[in-house]
């Protein structure tokens, strides 16, 4: 009597299944962390652009009022995205509301890291910068425009 031969081609052993699940879960977590960082970058860019735009379009003549209004506008724009973590908008260097003056703002958005097994990893900080130039022909500001021809 002859024993029938078994064909085992294409059969995955049970020891491979945990590895496949681990790769799938790890890839999903990596994708989710990358997506969260991308969302935070979009949020920071929106906030910093709004801050710079708000500063150069401010109706008053005081630089301090324009800076406060710009920070408030940038923070409000970032809060509209409803992301978790700390968010801030700050001016970089001096902010003077004068014709042809370049003003730069920086926004920071923190992204909590996805941690398995209660890992104590620090959050990831995403930063963005934007600058604008105050219009040389803007009405309401004193002095001549040094950059206008």
How would you portray this structure in words?
- The protein has 149 residues and is α+β, with helices and mostly antiparallel strands.
- It is 38% helix and 17% strand.
- It is built from two helices and three strands.
- The chain has helices at residues 17-56, 63-79, and strands at 87-92, 102-111, 124-133.
- It has a three-stranded antiparallel sheet with strand order 1-2-3, covered by helices on one side.
- Helix 1 runs antiparallel to helix 2 (63-79).
Report the average pLDDT across residues. Answer: 83
**Helix content bin:** 25-40%
Straight-line distance between termini: 105 Å
List segments where confidence is low: pLDDT < 50 over at least 5 consecutive residues.
none
Number of strands: 3
Helix count equals 2
What share of the residues does DSSP label as strand, in percent?
15-25%
